[in-house]
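Handout, section 4.2: multi-component inputs.
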Amino acid sequence: MAIELDNVSLRVGAETHIYETSLSLEPGQFNILLGTTLSGKTSLMRLMAGLEKPSSGRLLVNDQDVTGIPVQKRSVAMVYQAFINYPSFSVYDNIASPLRVAGLPRNEIDEKVRSFAELLKLTPMLDRLPNELSGGQQQRTALARALVKGAELVLLDEPLANLDYKLREELRDELPKMFADTGATVVYATSEPLEALMLGGYTATINEGRVIQFGQTSTIYRNPDSLTSARVFSDPPVNVASIDKRGGTAYLSDSVSWTVPARLAEMPDGSYTIGVRPHHLSPQGAGVEVSGEVQIAEISGSESIIRVIVEGNNWVSETHGIHSYEFGQSASFFFNSSRCLYFDVNEQLIETQG
Amino acid sequence: MNRKWVVPTLYILFLMLPIYGLLSMSFKTTNEILGGFSFFPQQFTLANYIKIFTDPTWYNGYINSLIYVVINTLISVSVALPAAYAFSRYRFLGDKHLFFWLLTNRMAPPAVFALPFFQLYSAIELFDTHLAVALAHCLFNIPLAVWILEGFMSGIPKELDETAYLDGYSFPRFFVRIFIPTIAAGIGVTMFFCFMYSWVELLLAKTLTSVSAKPIAATMTRTASTSGYELGLLAAAGSLTIIPGAFVIYFVRNYIAKGFALGRV
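Output:
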């Protein structure tokens, strides 16, 4: 179903959890809410579900105003980060419960429960209680309950955050496929930029109760429209520095300068901000050379994460291969000046051409 | 050498000593008890127990006590369930203060309430009924039950409620079908404490009854009757009062520690 937030805000007491937000999700679309903890992802989801009443604005489902309609009457399913199942029901009864409330005939319920249990590999556990299952199986049960209902809007609030690495990878692969067949509009909250990239679909970057940017995940990643959006959608954090543009040249410092790309050349002289993604900053190669003082070099798998101070800014380089550095060692790093992000004084992106 | 058993054994020994004393007295005649101390009954007799089980003034005491204790436990738990749910799930003006001050009724000795209750119940003709005692005990047991149940309910994430609503459950259906089974252990512990407090409470039960609802505790604590001292009989009655408590403890033994761990008892 199409769901639209129309200038929705949420205030709790004196605090504003969600500032006026408008967001429109197309039917059958896989949407990701990306933001740090407490950025308002969960609040947004609760507003969409109808668990929270907006302080202002309207919620439209298929162009119908549903603000204030109780959750029982909406076609919504939700899966939480903590594995929520009915502890006194067996796995079978857990999955069957929304169907039983809806009053479906017994044989139809049985058929649906068994097919979804099969899909989520829960068939051997149907008679067990949720507490007798592993975390992954508990979350699968919760997912099965959300799926079996055939809800038109499925809200997944960091469903994989409490699972161990292997299970998370496995479920992350399966999740979009499972929901693709149901035609449901899915909203998936996560705090991990990499997870958002892997899931694809559409992404809304969220920061401090505001939706910063919404669009196709890959577009948002490549062209964040503001510095905040870039910061939200980068892990390790995007490297930021202010530059001075004079004529056709950008100066990071007196000694580091480069010719600005066309899109910036048209802009007036003055102060700008650049953002360099950590994997665009590498210890070898060509491009703009900066030197910095290495703080620490961490190895993560076949990648090295090198933290370095460049012109007084804390920067990170994420690079292939294993590189070792001493603390305080000075080293040169390179980045491609046309691939980095340029922001104006208001931290808005200066658009890439084409 | 393993001496881990020493301390627990001594502990249990000291704990059981008074109970053993009571049990052993209950198998003695009153004359033997008054005659001097002996560790085992010299003239073993079941007469005391026979008397209790055959004389209605004795066994009715047990029946009366059980009736008002059961009524009280049912009232307390059924009233406390929605109250505890409200305290654990909703924020309202003065909720924390109200929750704390629930316990004020437990801060005053029951004697304080005996007189007003006596007058009130006499006026509305509740005096000397089981309901009178059951209602009077609610004064202590409902706050206690709310306090214990709130602890158990707050251990259940609010998301459970929301999931149920999203699944289409109405509030009453959710509460009965999902929530109550989820906190069954807590309800068991609560019932146990209501049962025990009501079972052992003497003063109100004694004041608010005379004949037809007279509790065993009142019968048991009269030291002398027309036939003089009956210490053997009293000991037998005392031994029997332990049984219901032990019986209830057996059913909630696995959950009672959790009740204590929640700091609510």
